[in-house]
């Protein structure tokens, strides 16, 4: 039996189907979860996908964070359920305070879409064990509100504890402090990042590489050997 | 009915590129002498019933948990006296 990984669809989610496909490619079973349904249907992990849930009204992720499904996700994430937030999912995780800091509009005020080079700074989380520490990867980035901000105390703490999971290399696409592309919680079960690993899982599309696939094989390995 | 206004601003230490873009446009429009602009959000809440201490406390909680993200933003809550006086 393989692992069941839930993918939440919010009104305005865009990448839920791509994420399900990436999960299937990695060898796990994707399970569609609905924002109005509190029940996580016995999944072993949850991905909050990219998109513009609730049109980014108020703040990106601010309204989705109060959806029924998130009540259960927040409760279970605190108890150890692996949760990955990609792009809008990362924004939802900061709004839910499962990850520290916040997300604001890109410093250049434009939408950005590019192949982005990243360094994996923490290969010990539930979602990154299949990477090498320090590995450089290329995955697509596409967002409006990608600027990661936090107060100096939080930044220092994240850096000291190795909780910056991914860092932008060569080019900071949005003004994120410390070039932060993604972070993890203390326990390593909750990870969020702005770039889109689910769009880099097949050689035919995206960057032409499969640098994003290890996110999904990592969690599978973690769940199956657990 | 009474109106309560919640103003939300980015914390002072956080870069506000929108405010900067506005500020940079000012000299072109003939407005000199404005050294900084910061842009925020204003919520006008029409409240049923009296705006007493309990109602204001509830709105404060709403602002703190939802209208503002206090990780990155500050907020103020006040009763709109002008709207009150006009009645």
UniProtKB/TrEMBL annotation, chain B:
The lineage of its organism: Bacteria, Bacillati, Actinomycetota, Actinomycetes, Kitasatosporales. InterPro entries: PurS (IPR003850), PurS-like_sf (IPR036604). Its EC number is 6.3.5.3. It is an enzyme of class 6 (ligase). Pathway: Purine metabolism; IMP biosynthesis via de novo pathway; 5-amino-1-(5-phospho-D-ribosyl)imidazole from N(2)-formyl-N(1)-(5-phospho-D-ribosyl)glycinamide: step 1/2. Part of the phosphoribosylformylglycinamidine synthase complex involved in the purines biosynthetic pathway. Catalyzes the ATP-dependent conversion of formylglycinamide ribonucleotide (FGAR) and glutamine to yield formylglycinamidine ribonucleotide (FGAM) and glutamate. The FGAM synthase complex is composed of three subunits. PurQ produces an ammonia molecule by converting glutamine to glutamate. PurL transfers the ammonia molecule to FGAR to form FGAM in an ATP-dependent manner. GO terms for molecular function: phosphoribosylformylglycinamidine synthase activity. Signal peptide: none annotated. Coiled coil: none annotated. It holds the Pfam family PurS. It is found in: Cytoplasm. This is Phosphoribosylformylglycinamidine synthase subunit PurS. SUPFAM superfamilies: PurS-like. Keywords: ATP-binding, Cytoplasm, Ligase, Nucleotide-binding, Purine biosynthesis. It comes from Streptomyces vulcanius. Belongs to the PurS family. It catalyses: N(2)-formyl-N(1)-(5-phospho-beta-D-ribosyl)glycinamide + L-glutamine + ATP + H2O = 2-formamido-N(1)-(5-O-phospho-beta-D-ribosyl)acetamidine + L-glutamate + ADP + phosphate + H(+). HAMAP family: PurS (MF_01926). Part of the FGAM synthase complex composed of 1 PurL, 1 PurQ and 2 PurS subunits.
């Amino acid at each position: 039996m393989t692992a069941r990984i839930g993918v939440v669809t919010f009104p305005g989610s865009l990448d839920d189907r791509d994420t399900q496909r990436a999960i299937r490619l990695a060898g796990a079973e994707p399970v569609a979860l609905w924002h109005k349904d509190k029940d996580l249907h016995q999944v072993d992990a949850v991905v909050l996908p990219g998109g513009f849930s609730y049109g980014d009204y108020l703040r990106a992720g601010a309204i989705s964070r109060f959806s029924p499904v998130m009540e259960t996700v927040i409760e279970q994430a605190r108890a150890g359920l692996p949760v990955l937030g990609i792009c809008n999912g990362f924004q939802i995780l900061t709004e839910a305070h499962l990850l520290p800091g916040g997300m604001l509009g890109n410093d250049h005020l434009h939408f950005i879409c590019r192949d982005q080079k990243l360094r994996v700074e923490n290969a010990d989380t539930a979602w990154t064990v299949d990477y090498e520490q320090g590995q450089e990867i290329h995955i697509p980035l596409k967002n409006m509100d990608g600027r990661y901000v936090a107060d100096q105390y939080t930044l220092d703490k994240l850096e000291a504890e190795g909780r910056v999971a991914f860092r932008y290399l060569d080019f900071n696409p949005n003004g994120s402090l410390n070039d932060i592309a993604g972070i993890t919680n203390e326990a390593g079960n909750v990870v969020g990042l702005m770039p889109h690993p689910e769009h880099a899982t097949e050689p035919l599309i995206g960057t032409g590489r499969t640098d994003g696939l290890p996110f999904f094989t990592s969690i599978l390995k973690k769940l199956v050997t657990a | 009915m009474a109106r309560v206004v919640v103003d939300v601003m980015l914390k002072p230490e956080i870069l506000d590129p929108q405010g900067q873009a506005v500020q940079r446009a000012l000299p072109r429009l003939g407005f000199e002498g404005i050294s900084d602009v910061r842009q925020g959000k204003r919520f006008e809440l029409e409240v049923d019933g009296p705006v007493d201490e309990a109602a204001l406390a509830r709105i404060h909680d709403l602002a703190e948990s939802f209208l503002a993200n206090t990780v990155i933003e500050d907020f103020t809550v006040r009763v709109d006296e002008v709207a009150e006086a006009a009645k």
